Amino acid sequence: MALFQDGPPSAIDDLVEQDSFLLSVAGTEGINVTNKLSLAYSELQIELTTIYGREASIYAPVLGEAPLDTDHTAVTPALKLWHTYRSLDLVYRDAYFNQLNDRYQGKWAEFQRLGLLARTSFIDTGAGLVIDPLPQAAAPVITFEAASLPGGTAYFTVTFVNTEGEESSPSVVVESTAPQGTAAVVEAATAPSNAVGWNLYGGTSPGTLSLQNSTPNAIGSTWQFILPGVAGGVAPGTGQSPNVTRDLPRRIMRG
Question: For a FRET experiment, which of 81, 123, 183, 212 has its CA 20 to 30 Å from that of 9?
């Protein structure tokens, strides 16, 4: 489960699952779906900050608890669905206003309605909070060093680990081809201040990555990857799960 701070919770595939005509509509109307995912994410950031702000006067975390903010928020199913519907809302709003095409108006209204329901579901189920959040790792740095090896292509992703052994979301997968007579040397990019180690997942195809190290690597260390690497190990996870769920009661403000 990723952190909200890592970026848009939903991807284009998630939108297509909800609306199989999405890509056709986007192509016909010249809509950049990736931009809509980002815009919906920004809007949810503002809304979450507002929702959390209403709780600020009664929620004062004690030592060891997670603050109620977007940096400590995990992406729960309800939050992801809210983002998915908000993104589709924005796509069909653009499609409608592009040529005032009434055939898109119904879907625009429907995804607005579903988005409000998902927002309510998020409030009702509560915010999942992570006490010691690790942001998603950046892409690993790959260099090469001389080795009596035939070379070849491998794929890598890395994660950071905190003192509780929790892992960040994996970095993007990086493809690297080591020339003949060399080995790939992998290094995690700049670590967050609360990281105490990092893990390397590698393999000969993007879909078969497995953990290469038996214990977390020290921050600042490198790992020489010798093809085909360790196979059949643990696959990369999806990030940190909530340590606690914070209730978000719906409040009626007194006038």
Answer: 212
Q: CB under 8 Å to 126, separation ≥6 — which residues?
A: 245, 246, 247, 248
Give the chain's mean pLDDT: 93
233: tokens are: 């190990």
Q: In Å, how far are 46, 166, 249 from 135, measured between CA atoms?
A: 19, 12, 28
Q: What is d(CA 181, CA 11) in angstroms, rounded to the nearest whole number? A: 39
Query: What's the rounded Cα separation, in Å, for the pair 227 and 243?
Result: 37
| pLDDT higher than threshold 90 for residue 183 | yes
Q: Is the pLDDT of residue 194 over 60?
A: yes
Rounded to an integer, the average pLDDT of 107-112 is 97
Structure tokens at 77: 């199913």
